[in-house]
């Protein structure tokens, strides 16, 4: 994998950990997740006029992705209501690349080298070590996190294929971002009422814009990378976001970190190096 691709995926990983921290810090996880999704759509709108439309073959994937993204944001909110970021984030992000690596040969016919597989597994072991070491959480947090790992693997496949068919990964990403907030706010309004949703938007709109811009940029970089390298490799490297989440959990949320979290961080870094050398 070229160095420029690796660096951009790592920058995207930083952005991803940051917007997850914004959801974790919020008072209403579901509405904050919807706000971040909406912020991504708002950030995308100014650029649509300057980009070509995705190819016709990509539109079914955009629709499928919107439904999976709706499920993803709902599960993110549910997981953060019941568990620490130090438990939830590693489980969600660590299991997904294992699922993708195990099935990409069958689904995408991508042949991964032994070195690449070793790098993917090393990153995943490091990430899962962080989750197992986490002190706080519940059975529900684990269930929500594992369910979301399956959703992440699913939309990674859908969007990895869709971005390749679209002819322009950036255009695909921006169009894909428009429908999920519609679904999320329609659901929130049906559950909470228009007044409660409007009140939350008025008080927290800035969180949505900041987190949404980071979310769409992070995913756009990953999808672009998937047009340059195998999907499983990019998906695994993207999970180095847990290193940034580790720093945020300690410095911002004051979660206790034992030596094992730092050991896991080193293991993840080694996995990233293995992917570069593979």
Automatic annotation (TrEMBL):
Source domain of life is Bacteria
Keyword list, A-Z? Cell inner membrane, Cell membrane, Lipid A biosynthesis, Lipid biosynthesis, Lipid metabolism, Lipopolysaccharide biosynthesis, Membrane, Transmembrane, Transmembrane helix
Segments crossing the lipid bilayer: 6-23, 30-51, 57-80, 87-108, 114-134, 141-158, 170-188, 209-226, 232-252, 259-277
Q: What processes in GO biological process is this protein linked to?
A: lipid A biosynthetic process; lipopolysaccharide biosynthetic process
The EamA domain is annotated at 141-274
The family database entries (InterPro entries) matched by this protein are listed as:
EamA_dom, EmrE-like, Small_drug/metabolite_transptr
Question: What kind of membrane protein is this, topologically?
Answer: Multi-pass membrane protein
A Pfam family reported for this protein in Swiss-Prot or TrEMBL: EamA
Q: What is its main location?
A: membrane
Q: Where in the cell is it found?
A: Cell membrane
Gene Ontology CC annotations of this record? plasma membrane
One GO MF annotation is:
transmembrane transporter activity
Annotated PANTHER family:
4-AMINO-4-DEOXY-L-ARABINOSE-PHOSPHOUNDECAPRENOL FLIPPASE SUBUNIT ARNF-RELATED, SMR FAMILY PROTON-DEPENDENT DRUG EFFLUX TRANSPORTER SUGE
The name under which this protein is listed is EamA domain-containing protein
Q: Which organism is it from?
A: Rhizobium vallis
Per the UniProt record, the lineage of the source organism begins with: Bacteria, Pseudomonadati, Pseudomonadota, Alphaproteobacteria, Hyphomicrobiales
